[in-house]
Design brief:
8 helices, alpha+beta, single chain, 9-stranded mixed β-sheet, about 20% helix
Amino acid sequence: LALSCALPPKTMSLATALRVASAAVRPHVRMAGTAAPAATAAAGQLQELSHKKMVVRKTTNVPTLPVKEELGFGKYFTPHMFVANWNSSSGWSTPNIQPLANLSLHPACSVFHYGLECFEGMKAFRGIDNKIRLFLPRMNVDRFYSSCKRLALPTFDKDEFYKCLVDLVVLEKAWIPDGRGYSMYIRPTMIATQPTLGVAKSSSAMMFVLTGPAGAYWGAHGFKPVKLLADSRYVRAWPGGMGDIKCGGNYAPTIKPQSEAVGEGCQQVLWLFNDQVTEVGTMNLFTFWINEKGKKELITPPLDGTILPGVTRHAILGLTRKWGEFEVSERNYTMTQVKKAGQEGRLLEMFGAGTAATVSPVEAIKYNGEWINIPAGGKVATRIMDEVFDIQYGKIPSHEWAPIIA
């Protein structure tokens, strides 16, 4: 972030300096070139976010498209972004699609001191028919709205925001690479921009959306199963907390445990609440086993407020229930049960599920100093990946989960 603020000269009196500083922070914090909030139509009436009012300013400096095979994830961004500002006196400003630029924010903004921010992660795909599709996008919009609401950030008309987001993706469609596994990553974000210190609901906020081409997560060699460290010393989420929203406060505390997991010969952390299985890394967790009743079952923890309501999770539950080949359950289970299933040969597969990887197979778990090995093969995970890709890339041409936008 490029920070800009005007500081009073040393020769200015304290009283004058305070007046200057106060005046400097009164205007709504916004990106340079972004329109100020629209005037309030009547006393007490706040402007709603409106797609119809959106202004599009195209860049004159279009960068060269990166080489597809070198994309990776989160390294490249398209030349435009969506921005809309909000404040408590007038509501939403005129939304803009404008050239990608640094943000100019006062260093006292609430986002820097109290973590008042949330975000989303979704993708656009170039199908085998060259048409552009999203994947269950309304679920992402709903979750973004819920995250904003939980953090007392401003809410918005979901349909209007969705239309703005679609316009941005369509404008940048040349940046969506072709090929199975390739996509455009879309990152809606909301930050609190009130330029004063103090733990309170922010009187101003900025919403923006970044987009960028993303490489195939698994590359040319297919799945690479991961090892997990299950350690109850660190807890990702708890009842009454924020485990079901996407905010930075859910991710920053995971970096140290993740580093420790690498030191233990693992790639990810299996998050526990006491002994209860919750999530893996930044993904939802699925276990395919023969349960204690002797039946094959695909199980994942329920949405009890500690689990992120994943879009890929939703798709997996829908697909596997449609198969009708085994039980599909959303219920709590423990590492003690997982260990016992492994010892008794009932553990068949385990995998994480999320937007970035779609599915990520697990080959082993380190738990209380012992390894629990997961059988190789991953037939269920592979089948899920194939069916989700068939929908995302248009092999199934008109699926309700994958609206065509261009």
